[in-house]
Specification:
Blueprint: H1 6-14, H2 20-28, H3 34-38, H4 42-59, H5 86-94, H6 126-138
Amino acid sequence: MPSVASWEREFCKVVGSMDWNVFLHKKKHIHLHPKALEWNDIAAKEAFNNAKRRFWSQKHHFSCDVPLPDPDLYIYNIDWDSKIDIKLDLDSISSRDDNEGPEFIGDPLVPETYRDIVPTGWGDDPAATFSARYGDLLGSN
C-alpha cells in the first residue's frame, strides 16, 4: 500500500472524525458492499476534494480560494400562506376502511402462540389484571 501523507491522516481524524486505522479497516472490507464501490457521486467527490484543499491550506498557513459549501443549498423557500384543499384531505380519510387492521407483509411479527395475550396499558391495576389472567394458575379463581 502506498504511503499516505501525515496531513491526510490528520484530515481523516479532524474533518472526518475517523481514526486512520478505522478507515483502513473499512477500506479493507468495502468489497463486501459492491453498490458502494459502483456509486459515482461527482458532487460528493468534489466536496471531499475541496475539503482536503481547504484543510491542507489551513494546516500549512496558505490562503485558500476554495469557497465553503453554500449552507443554504438545500433549504427551500416555504410558502407559509399556502392554501390546503380540505375536501381532498377529507376524501382520502373517508376512503379508508376503519375496520381494517394493520397489513403485514411476510411473517407476522408475533408468533402464533403469543397472539392471545392481551397487553395491559396505563391505568390498569396490575394486581387485578394478573389475577384475572393468571389466577387459575395459582388456584385463586
